[in-house]
Amino acid sequence: MQEDFHYYATYCAAILAGYDHAESLLICHAAQLVDHCSRTWLKTVGGPSDAATTQLQLELMEARTDRPGLIDITRIWSSFHFLPRDLYAEIARGTRNYKDRYRLICGPNGKLLADTVNLARDRSPVAAGIAMHVLADTWAHTYFAGTPSLVINNTNSHFYELFPTEDGGFERKHISFSHNPTAADDPEKRLYVGSVYQSSEYSIMNLGHGRAGHLPDYSYIRYVYLPAWGGYREIVKDNPSDYLHAFSQMVYALRFLRGEEAEFSTDTYATATIAPHRETIREIIAKRRVDASADWKAFGERLSGETIPAFDREKDCEEYRHADPGSKKDTFLGQFFDAALRQKSMVTTRILESGNRLGGLPPRKRRMSS
Amino acid sequence: MTIWQRINQLAIGIVMLLLGVLLFLYDADTYPVIIVLYSLALQLTGYRLLWYYFTMARHMVGGRSILFRGALFLDFGLFTGSLLTVPQFYVLIYLTGTLAFSAIVDLLRAREARGIQASWKLKTFQGAVKLLTVLICLIYLHSEALVVDIFSVGFVFSALMRIVNACRRTRVITIS
Amino acid sequence: MDFPVYQPDNSERAISLRRHRDALAISGAAVIAFSIWDMIKVFIELFLGEETLSSMVATVIEAIDVTDPEDMKYVPLIAWVTTVTILLLACAAIFFYHFIIGISAYRAGRQTAGKKNRLYLVLTVLILAVSLFFYTPNILHFFPRDEETDQIGLATLLVELTSIANYLFLLYSAYRIHQLEREALS
Questions:
Q1: pLDDT at B162
Q2: Residues 46-85 of C with CB under 8 A from B
Q3: Which one of A12, A24, B40, C107 is least enclosed by Cβ atoms within 10 Å?
Q4: A156 touches chain C (CB under 8 A)
Q5: Half-sphere CA count of A174, side-chain side, radius 13 A
Q6: In terms of pLDDT, which residue wins out, C150 or A239?
Q7: What is the tens place of the pLDDT at every residue in A149-187?
Q8: How many CB pairs under 8 A join B and C?
Q9: What pTM, to 2 d.p., does this model score?
Q10: Mean pLDDT value of segment A134-151
C-alpha cells in the first residue's frame, strides 16, 4: 500500500470512526510515517535507531544478510509491513528453517493483528495510526513474508490479471515484469516492474513482495499467481475486495480504539458504518490507476469538510529536536517512536515465544521505557 | 550489494590479484594453487546448492532448477580439480577458456543492462578487455611464457574490476 | 464483500498439471545446459585426455596412402582440417539434437509451443537408451578405478547420472502431462 491508502484512506476511516479532523490527521500522518521512518531519517531527527519502521533501498543494499542482519530486517518488516498471520501454522513439509520462514507469511485476521490493535488501545492517536498501517498492510501484503527468503517470496512467470466479464466470469490476461529500476508500471500493457530473480535464499531482492513488484500496492488489480511456498496451487489476490475489507476493518478497529466497541475481534468489519459510502469507496478502489490519492483526498474532505494537507515527513521534526529531554516523549515524534518500539517489541516477543529463530532478541528494555 | 557481499567480492578480488601477480612472477609454479582454489570454490558452491535444494528449495515452485545448478557446479569443480595432473600448457588453455566464457557473460550482461537502461558501460569495457586478452593469448599460443604473462595481466585486470565493482554503489529494486 | 469472486482451479489434476509442466520446462533447460557443458568437456578432453586431437590426426595421416612425396606436404593440413571439421560437425549435431529436446520440452512446459510436438520425446527416449547403453558399464565399474582417474571419473559419473535422471524426469513429466490432459478431456 502507498500514500493513497495509508494517508488519505486512513484519514477517511478515522473520520468515519468518529475522530475529529485534528485527531484524524494525527492518525493518518503516523500511518504514513511508518513508510518513512528509516534509520537514516532517524539520524537526522535524533530519534532512537531501534524505532526504525522501514529500511530505505540504500540501507537494504548495505544491510548484512548474516544472522544478526537478517534478524534486524525481519523485526522491522514483520512488525510493520508483513505481520505474520499464524506463527504456529501447521505445515507437514520442510526442515525447521523452512517452517520458520513459512510461519512468517503475512495475512489478515491473525492473532498478532488483535495484539497490535489492543496494544494501541488507551494510547495516543499516533499509536492508532501505526496500528492502522500494520492492519492495512496485512491485507495488501498477504502471502509474502517480511524476511528475505527465496523459498517463500519467489514467484515465476505464472501471473495473470483477472478481468470480470459480462457473463459473471473472468478473463485471464498474462502480466509481464520488467526489471528496470527506472521504469514506471504500465497498467494498460500489464507491464510492471519487479525485482530480478536471485537464487540466493537471503538476497534482499527476496524480501517481501519485491518479486511481484507493486502489484499488491494497487487497489484495482486482481490477479492469480503461484507463490513459491504454494505447492503449485494458484493463489488469487483480489485487491479490490481486500482493500474494501481493509478499509472497513480500519473503521471498526478505530471505533474500538475510541472506546465505541467493547473488544476487538478479528474478521469483524464496520459494514454498517461505511454502508452509506460503499459505492464511493468501491469506485475509488476499483478505478484503474496506480495512485488513488486525489480521489481519497476528495472523499475525505467531503466527509470532514476540512482540507487535508499533503503529507510532510519533516512537519514534526523541529518540535522533537527542540523539545527538552524530559518532554520529548510528549511530542508527536516521541509518541510515534514509543509506539513503534512497543509494536516491534511485541511482535518480536511473539515470534520468539513461538520458537521461531528469525526474530532474534527483543529490543532493549531501556529503549522501550523512553 | 550488501556489505557482506562486498566484503566477499573484495576478498575474492584480492586473492585473484595476488594470484595474478604470482603467476606473472613465478609463471607455471602458480598453476596448482589456482586450480585447487578454483576447484574448491566451485565444489563448495555445488555442495551448498545441493544442501539448499534438499533442505529447502525442493518445497519451492521451480526449486528443481537449484538441484541441476548444484550438480553442474559440483561437476565443474571436480572436473577443474582433475586438471592438476595434465600438462600446464593445457591448463593455461583451460583457464583462457574460462576467461573467454567470463568475457562473453560480461558482454551479454552488459547488453541486457543496456536493454533495461541500467549501468552497462563498465561491464562492456570489462568484457571487451577480457576478450582482447583471450585473443592475444590465442595469437601467441606458441610462446608459452608470453601467454602466461598475458594471461596473468588479464587475471589482474579481472581482479581489479571485481574490486572496483565491490566498491561501487548499485541500484536494486526492492519494496517500499 | 460484494466484489465478484474468482475461483481458481486448484483441483488435484490442475495442481499436478502445473507441477509437471514446470518440471518439464526446467528439465528442458537443464538438457541444454548439460549439453553445453558436455561439449566444453569434450573439447577439453580432446586437448588433455589420452585420446588427444593430435593423436587422432596422426592416425588419420597414417591411414592415408600417398605415393608422391610432393603431395605428402598437404596431407597433414588436409588431415587436420578434415578431422577438426568432422569433429565440429559432430559436436554441432549432438548439441543440436539436445537443443531440440531442450527447447521443445521448455516450450511444452511453458505452453508457448505453437502446436503439439512429440518428436522431442522420441529423441529423448533414443538418447536415454544410448546413455544407458554406454554409461551403465562406467557406472558399474567406477569404484575399482585407480586414484589418478578418480576425480575426472567422479565428475563424469556425476553428470552422467544427473543427465540420465533428467531424461527420466523429462519423460515422466511429459507422460503425466499427457495423461492429465486426456483426463481433462474425457
A1: 80
A2: 47-48
A3: B40
A4: yes
A5: 8
A6: A239
A7: 999 999 988 899 999 888 888 899 999 888 776 778 888
A8: 57
A9: 0.81
A10: 95
- DSSP assigned state of A8: I
Same domain, A222 and A139: no
Contacts of B74 in chain C (CB under 8 A): 158
Chain A neighbors of B109, CB-CB under 8 A: none
Q: What is the ipTM of this complex?
A: 0.82
What whole-number distance in Å separates Cα of residue A334 and Cα of residue A328? 5
* Cell, residue A33: 510515517
Give residue A154's identity as a one-letter amino acid code.
N
Asked if C113 reaches chain B (Cβ–Cβ under 8 Å), the answer is no
Look at C34 and B61 and tell me if their CB atoms are within 8 Å: no
* A76-121 confidence digits (pLDDT tens): 999 999 999 999 999 988 899 999 999 999 999 999 999 999 999 9
Same domain for A296 and A170? no
Does an H or E element contain A173, and which? strand A170-174
Contact B116, A179 (CB under 8 A): yes
Range among A63-77, A238-252, C105-119 rated most confident = A238-252
Gap between the Cα atoms of A343 and A103, Å rounded: 19
Q: What residues have CB less than 8 Å from A358, skipping those under 6 apart? A: A70, A71, A74, A100, A101, A104, A147, A351
Chains linked to A by 3 or more Cβ pairs within 8 Å: B, C
pLDDT tens track for B91-149: 677 777 777 877 887 887 777 666 555 567 777 888 888 888 888 877 776 676 777 77
Distance (Å, whole) CA A134 – CA A259: 20
Mean pLDDT, range A262-274, rounded to an integer: 93
- What's the average model confidence in pLDDT over A32-54? 92
**DSSP-assigned letter for residue A170:** E
Angstrom distance (rounded) from CA A39 to CA A56 = 8
Residue C112 touches chain A, beta carbons under 8 Å:
no
Give the three cell numbers for residue A75. 523485526
C-alpha grid cell, residue C111: 505452453
Minimal CA separation from A293 to chain C, in Å:
22
- Over residues A137-146, mean pLDDT: 95
Whether B9 has a pLDDT exceeding 90, the answer reads no
Q: Based on the domain organization, do A92 and A108 belong to the same domain?
A: yes
Residues A254, A218 share a domain: no
The half-sphere exposure of A169 on its side-chain side, counting CA atoms within 13 A, is: 4
Contact status, residue B110 vs residue B127, Cβ threshold 8 Å = yes
Where a domain ends, among A181, A205, A238? A238
Inter-chain contact A61–B66, Cβ cutoff 8 Å? no
- What Rg value do the Cα atoms of chain B yield, rounded? 18
Q: What total of structural domains would you count in chain A? A: 2
Which chains would you list as touching B if contact means 3+ CB atom pairs under 8 Å?
Answer: A, C
Query: Does A164 contact chain C (CB < 8 Å)?
Result: yes
Closest CA to A225 of A281, A175, A163: A175
Running DSSP on this structure, what letter comes out for residue C51?
S
Distance CA C114, CA C97 (A): 20
Nearest Cα residue in chain B from A178: B116
Confidence of residue A199 (pLDDT cuts 50, 70, 90): confident
The length of chain A in residues reads: 370
A203 and A306 together in one domain:
no
pLDDT at B120: 74
| CA separation for the pair B142, A204 (Å, rounded) | 48
For A201, the grid coordinates are 535464499
End of a domain among A204, A221, A238?
A: A238
